[in-house]
Amino acid sequence: MHGIIDVCLDVEPVSQPAWSVFRPSVGRPWFIGHVKVNSECRRATVPTVPQSTIAASETPERHDLPATTAAGGLGEVGLAGTRNPFAASPLERRKNAKEAIARVVLALFTFVLIAPVLAILVYLVVKAWPVLGLSFILENPANRMTAGGIWAPLVGTFFLVVISLAIAAPIGILGGVYLNEYAGNNWRTRVVALGVTNLAGVPSIVHGLFGVGAFVLFAGMGESVLAASCTLAVMSLPVIITSTREALNSVPMAFREACWNMGATRWQTIRTIVLPNSIGGILTGVIFEVTRAAGETAPILFTGAVFFKGGLKEHGLASFFPYSLNEGCMALSMHLYTLATQVVGVSEPIQYGTAVVLIGLTLAVNSVSIGLRGYLRSRKKW
Amino acid sequence: MDAANTSSAVYTVQATGLNLWYGDFQALRDVTIRVKPGIITALIGPSGCGKTTLLRCFNRINERYGNVTTTGEITILGKNIYDRDVSLSTLRKSIGMVFQRPNPLPISIYENILFGVRAHTPRRAFNRRQRDEMVEAALRNVQLWDEVKDRLRHRGTDLTLEQQQKLCIARLLPLKPQVILMDEPCSALDAEGTERIEELLDTLCRDYTILMVTHNMAQARRASHECIFMLLGRIIEHGSTLDVFLRPQQAETAMYVSGHYG
């Protein structure tokens, strides 16, 4: 076996192209190709390839091989390495070079991964700088949306997110608990799980059109906050169910066994042990869903988001409740789309400012979620 | 029925013609055993011989692990536990189980001890003083009280493995079980921990019937009064520990206890 591998490695630099480090599969055909090479062939190849000297020294057993092998010229060269028995062989130097390349390439790709995020953030903030400020957030759009702030869409988004989660979270969490803790591993459960997975893959515009059919028309809600929230809730459900199940699965089975063996029912087990230990993970999933719901435009486009809503109060308590549930509302994502494509003469900073608020909101909520998860993980000990 | 009642005075646990299948795989074949109260009975045998499966039949926890079919009878305290009118919750209250890997619940030591009681009694069934007494009595019984009395509010999962295993035994005691099933209770512990748990079992076995699965033949020899040797789902031999180890009746037992396989 040693002989065969050595032969492969000896010949490697001769014909292995430099780019092959990026192709993990490259070693395989090499190996297969040389399995057929017998020992005579090895002896024949070795002297012609200069690197063979070190290949011999890096397998110490070779020194002890009987004279027949040493006759191939390997033995005496190997002994030359006795000055430093641990010196790096050329093979190792090649290995280390590949290691260095791998490190650099992987780091490069990581940078490529985060560079767009940083670029977008910096670009947006720079472009939006002139309008950014408290008044931009607290004022309603004015003068055909070419002036003023984004208070009305911000509140609209808040309404949509809160109501949709108020609908989706209980259904998703309780359904997830049933699927994970009660339902047996049978075809019915698998069909439901498959349905949930597929629901997660449905494009958001399809959710939007479903919302038009189901909530706006069939349920008679009209284009309203309620219909849009219901649509967002349907969109959020699969993600909430999946993250709930993951959180529940992370509670070790041993805890459940311990409870059952003391005669606790499934519900007692869930209420006292499983839920308290997974609620952090469940909440994390729900909070992540907040940002997705806030950013979506397609599901609310036809179900409740409006282009502009006039006559909204700007000050006082009333400005916090500008919409009733049965009328349409403005929303940040929709507002951004409108400003960018539908309205003539909107100054650039206002457009970028809207984007900054939306993305800032997303990042802030996600950080809360990540922080919460980190805190809860640090508290766990099992 | 009369026979069962009279014999239950002598035997706490009796299995008669017990067969068990996981799907199509038969894990137990015609198992018939009688376990006496007040002693430790060890179940020994090579991996996969059905020791743990048999143990799990005695509190019917097997049924939580999916596609299991059981035939035959297990009589505990004169009642066939596979009868329809047996409440699993009450059954498991009187037949406690200790696991291979200590599994204290991720709540305080105090609440760990009370968990079983709380699961079986209405809220506020006991006042604070009664609860404190229950916790102290249980922890004293397993010789854990002095070590943990100042940190009863700490998490059970923060204890050492040996303490955790003692806690797992202690939390069964307030339920006043008749039988304690142990599935390799010492295999996660070091030699000292094992020794102390064995000592503890020796004191506990006067009040409870203890059935212990063990992989460790030296432990079976040290810590049990009777041994049941199993192979491929069958009971090969059941006798006093000394007899099983020194004067085995069956060739398989002799091979196993002398270390020829397993």
Tell me briefly what this model is.
With 382 residues, chain A is mainly α.
Question: Order of SSEs of chain B, N→C?
Answer: HEEEHEEHEHHHHEHEHEEHH
Q: For the record, what CATH class of the largest domain in chain A applies?
A: Mainly Alpha
Low-confidence stretches of chain B: 1-8
Radius of gyration of chain A, CA atoms, in whole angstroms:
32 Å
In whole angstroms, the N-to-C terminal distance of chain A is 45 Å
How far apart, in Å, are the first and last alpha carbons of chain B? 39 Å
What would the CATH topology of the domain at 2-101 and 179-257 in chain B be?
A: Rossmann fold
What is the SS-derived class of chain A?
mainly alpha
Number of strands of chain A: 2
Helix percent of chain B reads 25-40%
The residue-averaged pLDDT of chain A reads: 78
Q: What shape does the CA trace of chain B take?
A: globular
- Which secondary-structure class do the elements of chain B indicate? alpha/beta
Largest sheet of chain A: 2 strands, antiparallel
What order do the SSEs of chain A take from the amino end to the carboxyl end, as H and E? HHHHHHHHEEHHHHHHHHH
Q: Which percent bin holds the helix content of chain A? A: 55-70%
- Please name the CATH topology of the largest domain in chain A: MetI-like fold
* Proportion of residues in extended strands of chain A: under 5%
CATH superfamily of the largest domain in chain A: MetI-like
Determine the CATH superfamily of the domain at 2-101 and 179-257 in chain B.
Answer: P-loop containing nucleotide triphosphate hydrolases
Q: Overview of this structure, please?
A:
The complex is a heterodimer of chains A (382) and B (262). With 382 residues, chain A is mainly α. Chain A folds into 2 domains: 2-96, no CATH class; 134-379, MetI-like fold (Orthogonal Bundle), CATH 1.10.3720. Helix content of chain A is 69%, strand content 1%. Chain A has 17 helices and 2 strands. Chain A has helices at 2-15, 27-35, 39-45, 52-57, 67-70, 74-80, 90-128, 134-138, 151-182, 187-201, 204-218, 225-249, 253-261, 266-295, 298-301, 332-341, 348-379; strands at 141-142, 147-148. Chain A has a two-stranded antiparallel sheet. In chain A, β1 (141-142) and β2 form a beta hairpin. Chain A is globular and about 85 Å long. Residues 1-76 of chain A have low confidence and may be disordered. With 262 residues, chain B is α/β, with parallel strands linked by helices. Chain B has a domain at 2-101 and 179-257: 3-Layer(aba) Sandwich (Rossmann fold). Chain B has helices at 2-8, 51-57, 88-94, 109-120, 128-141, 145-148, 161-170, 191-204, 217-223, 241-246, 251-257, and strands at residues 13-22, 25-35, 40-44, 68-76, 79-80, 95-98, 179-183, 209-213, 226-231, 234-240. In chain B, the strands form 2 sheets. Chain B has a 6-stranded mixed sheet, sandwiched between helices. Chain B has a 4-stranded antiparallel sheet with strand order 2-1-4-5. In chain B, α7 packs parallel to α8. Chain B starts with a helix and ends in a 5-residue tail after the last helix. The interface between A and B is medium-sized, with 21 and 31 residues.
